[in-house]
Automatic annotation (TrEMBL):
<dbReference type="Pfam" id="PF12704">
    <property type="entry name" value="MacB_PCD"/>
</dbReference>
<feature type="domain" description="ABC3 transporter permease C-terminal">
    <location>
        <begin position="314"/>
        <end position="441"/>
    </location>
</feature>
<keyword id="KW-1003">Cell membrane</keyword>
<feature type="transmembrane region" description="Helical">
    <location>
        <begin position="363"/>
        <end position="389"/>
    </location>
</feature>
<dbReference type="InterPro" id="IPR003838">
    <property type="entry name" value="ABC3_permease_C"/>
</dbReference>
<feature type="transmembrane region" description="Helical">
    <location>
        <begin position="309"/>
        <end position="335"/>
    </location>
</feature>
<protein>
    <recommendedName>
        <fullName>ABC3 transporter permease protein domain-containing protein</fullName>
    </recommendedName>
</protein>
<dbReference type="InterPro" id="IPR050250">
    <property type="entry name" value="Macrolide_Exporter_MacB"/>
</dbReference>
<dbReference type="InterPro" id="IPR025857">
    <property type="entry name" value="MacB_PCD"/>
</dbReference>
<keyword id="KW-0472">Membrane</keyword>
<dbReference type="GO" id="GO:0022857">
    <property type="term" value="F:transmembrane transporter activity"/>
</dbReference>
<feature type="domain" description="MacB-like periplasmic core">
    <location>
        <begin position="21"/>
        <end position="202"/>
    </location>
</feature>
<dbReference type="GO" id="GO:0005886">
    <property type="term" value="C:plasma membrane"/>
</dbReference>
<dbReference type="Pfam" id="PF02687">
    <property type="entry name" value="FtsX"/>
</dbReference>
<feature type="transmembrane region" description="Helical">
    <location>
        <begin position="21"/>
        <end position="45"/>
    </location>
</feature>
<keyword id="KW-0812">Transmembrane</keyword>
<feature type="transmembrane region" description="Helical">
    <location>
        <begin position="409"/>
        <end position="431"/>
    </location>
</feature>
Amino acid sequence: MKLLDLFLLALSNLRRRKIRTLLTVLGVVIGTASIVVMVSLGLGMSENLLRSFQSAGSLTMITITNYGGMGENAKNKVELTDDSIKSFESIPHVTGTSPSLEIYVTAKVGALQGDFSVRGVSQAYFQQMKLKEGTFPKKGDAELGLIYGNTVAGSFHKGNNWDKNYTIDPMKDTLFYIFPEVQDTSKNGATQSEGGQDKPQKKYIIKTVGVMEGSAEDYSEDSSYVYADLDSLKAFLKKIYKKSLVPNPKTGKNGKPLRYYSYDQAYVFVDNMNNVADVQKQITDMGYSCYSQVEWLKQAQEQIKTTQLVLGGIGAVSLLVAAIGIMNTMMMSIFERTKEIGVMKVLGCDMGDIRNMFLTESALIGILGGIVGIVLSYAVSLIINMLATGGGDMVDSYTGGGGGNISTIPLWLTIFAIVFAMLVGMLSGYFPSVRAMKLSPLAAIRNE
């Protein structure tokens, strides 16, 4: 029997029992929609989590730290110097590196002031950033230019009153910057300024050349800092400080300030997030402490996978009930059509065609239920996302702050759901079809 004939015959048989077919299909619809919606919630959670981590910082960046490495505490520490940071570039899959030279400053404009850190970084770091306006400073620019994090401009205050914040425009306002005095450690442990006496603090006008992408409420690893080209910042600091590289220099084992840059933090950039773990391990083996967003992302994704399995399992129960319904429908169909099956056998119909007829009927039930179930899933998903739009903090806690849809149905899930529903239908109809194939022709004809 041709495939088209099987299809038309199966369709005709299902139409003869409209109510029973409709109820059986309804079971598949509910089962399919349950699985798809449950899985879509897990996928939405995963996508929002990924988006949240990406907004908080680059997933291909490794942060290396070396805090507290001074004096006696430095004995077991591996220093982060320009040369050691440069050596990380020889590690496979590393695309760039950047030291982080951090200086705490005070900026003033009119009656307002802001207190924040200026970070000197390399051009490789700037390549990971996005600007809302302005341009990135170039390597070794003669004039120091600053890039403002997107939350810094809104953190200014009046004097020592921190209760109320004010927003400035760093691209238009003229800001005066005050850098800290050099601190010399005396033998008795006290500190004093470089000149040995208090002097009026000098103010420096520094141009803002860019502002990072994002609103004042968008937090990321970069948002609360001001950035400058590393070489330009070093050159600027040399003009300010005569006897020291930085205002609060690290000391060596002899207690004297170091005459080279020893950084508390550095960054390594990797070509792909899948290679981050391997690069991170090699850096750790070299004696450095480091971390990356990928570590935390993988831990969170493992938890989400467990949640997805639970949600999918809940939906699978509905589809299991639907499979039992299909099997029951096929068995009842065989009992009602016993004489018809007997006549077909007496007329010489192939056993395989009889089996395929019932398999086609059950497959049609599965396909029809799967298609309608997908349509229902998209409708439910749309309603969930529309309701979630005004969900506020409760929705943000579910989505991990990613700001995307709670429910996401990709194309592969749509195709999988329809194919899976068809397979469930065929498996449910397999045993009834085999029973129909094995019926005795004479017994079937005599059946009333």
